[in-house]
Fold this sequence. Notes:
heterodimer, A: 7 helices, 17% strand, B: alpha+beta, Cytochrome-c3 Hydrogenase, chain B, 3 domains, 37% helix
Amino acid sequence: MYGKGLIKGLGVTLKRFVNTYLDDLKWAGKRYYTQEGLAHRSSKDANGIFTVQYPEEKLPVPEEFRYVPFLVYDELEDGTHHNRCTACGICSKVCPPQCIWIERATDPKTGRPKQEPAAFSIDLDICMNCGLCAEYCPFDSIKMDHDYEIAGYGRTVHHLDELLKPASYYDEIRPLNSAREAAIRKEKEEAKAAKAAARAARAAKK
Amino acid sequence: MSDLDFTTRFPTGVVADERKGYEGYIVDADKLVEFATALRDEFGFDYLSSVTGVDYINEGKLEVVYHAYKTTGGAGLVFKTQVDREAAEVPSLYNIYPGADFQEREAWDLMGIKFTGHPDLRRILLWEGFEGHPLRKDWKEPYFEEDVKPFKSRWPEGDFHRAEDKNPYGANVQYPDKFDPEKWQPEGEDALYGSLAKYQTTDESGLVTDHITVNLGPQHPSTHGVFRIAAKLNGETIVNLKPVMGYLHRNHEKIGERNTYLQNMPFTDRLDYLSSMSNNFGYALAVEKLLKVEVPERAEYLRVIMAELTRIQNHLFAIGMFLNDLGAFFTPSLYAIEERELILDIFEMVSGSRMMCNYFRFGGVVRDLPEGALEKIKGLVLDRLPRKVDEMDRFLSENEILRSRTVGQGYLSAEDAIKYSAAGPMLRASGIPYDIRRADPYSIYDRFDFDVAVRYNGDIYDRYYIRLDEVRQSLRILEQAIKDIPEGEILSGKPQYTVRVPAGESYGRVEGPKGELGFYIVSDGKANPYRYHVRAPSFINLTAFGPMCVGLKVADVVAVLGSIDIVLGETDR
Ligand code: SF4
Ligand code: SF4
């Protein structure tokens, strides 16, 4: 019969329409603006329409989500900040669009290079959000941020003061990663300490 | 005489390519046409997949590289022709393999290789006033810094500045000889319109009708981006039609040759930006062939899972957008996009980004599945997606409007599909069961039980429907993959940001959602690829677009284009 396909198709749309309201009823108002509601709407069991009411509602981003890079500093016990970056330059070398600019500091007395950056700039308009810099930084210093609401009216270039964020922030956005990295760092340090101790013991024997 | 005994068949003019790391044959330019004819008619290589060039500037030579296949399956054959850089002329293979049409134009455009006998050798990606051929090794772009990355200005004295703050009219902007910008008049598009041929028709009553030229695009909702169709019409009927592209051209390949091997990985995401995982896959395969690294089992499974999820979400998107083109404005496409969003959620969880995944590394993948990801994939694959695909099918496939717009329209015969080097769903909807996952298996596809989707009518409807078939087959592969995925390593060796790739050439190809996606790489042993070429299915599939549209109405052109499924990021590169 001509038109059967049409009616069948319209049935699908109608079902979708009804389902949305059924789900609304089932969730008794909790379908929107709650964490569980959001989780349900982005799960395989979502029924009907599952639009998110951005910006009132925001989807939580997964831990691995990457937006733009930032630099991590440690807050030491004496209240000072320690920038993890050693200005080794690896991130600027792997960066595909070459948007990381690092000026290595020099010791004013000796004139020798120091292991810290004097200036660090990332042109975020050029950054392609690939995450390679964070992947290959050997000092867990450059990391990918979760904050995606950085649109501006001008050009966005982040220098050291905008880039640096505390380690506690990093722990908060990427808890699993930071715990894993801390464990590896600790292991390395212990191995180093053990080696140093062995060397000291040998020296003492002689 | 063995199957591939070319040197006996051609005692002169054809020699095996004996450079270290290279394979295939080198054919003299004056033997090329004869060789290609024999290849097609006697040796059964009926499908010319890729044509590109390499500039061996130190030897003063340009090399044209061809990859040919048999549509019955099996490994491919590569043959080359070398010509002098200064007088680069090669006979065109257009008459033997019409699929070479756009690719030869591209090689002319970017490399400056003249294909004699090509009926319409114009620039294709760059604009007609462009000076020079950018993929030649001595061509330098504006703001040129160094031949290869990393640039020395970034570290240790990285004094930040922007390229455009420098004088844009510096020494590396190239003009034609005696160019005077004040007096310059754009050429116009006579060559393009001329190539459409001008006709007049006289009907029975003696009425003379002029054909008119109509441009659809570059800004047109049906073109899925910036893409133009120059059409010659007789009334409302298409007499001839040529696609015009390159509006999104950024010379991906030149950028790729400046990049290190690893740096290219995230750039491949931006080719077909709907299926970055497949792009990663093809590129990783090509480099791994040269590196000869093994990929751990678990990583292989992860790759297959990601590639198949990519295929599903691409096809859903393609179907949705195709319905848009037919005029079913956004209801079907939003239904499709909903499912796609759930798949993108998985990509985001695993790779950190929904579309620009950058997930593959040479010898594996970047990270393992996070907790909960496998459950999510299982939920989708085993429960939700099969339901939703069936729903799509019920919703659309029997719909009378859809059927009357598509059944029997935009016909592409099996012979033409092969002739024009159409790939992927387009080739298979014309009755050629050619799927690289079966024909020349890569990764671990030989382990999975699935059918190559094929349909025989070659019309728009079949090109629509085959995508649903393929989604179902992908679901089958996924079911097996998530059942069998072993524990273990996901990357062989340590993560490395510089890879030393042994000298040689390699061609890695995968069955991308849009067709054969190939990466041709020449390494000279340095940290950057010497040549990096992408065989882009969206681009080559358009070769058949014109012939398919002849005789249709303007509205059907939109439907035909939608059924090809192009992404301009890949078409224009
Ligand atoms: S790789 Fe890490 S430590 Fe080295 S310069 Fe970059 S941010 Fe600093
Ligand atoms: S995310 Fe990628 S593009 Fe951006 S700064 Fe890091 S390496 Fe460069």
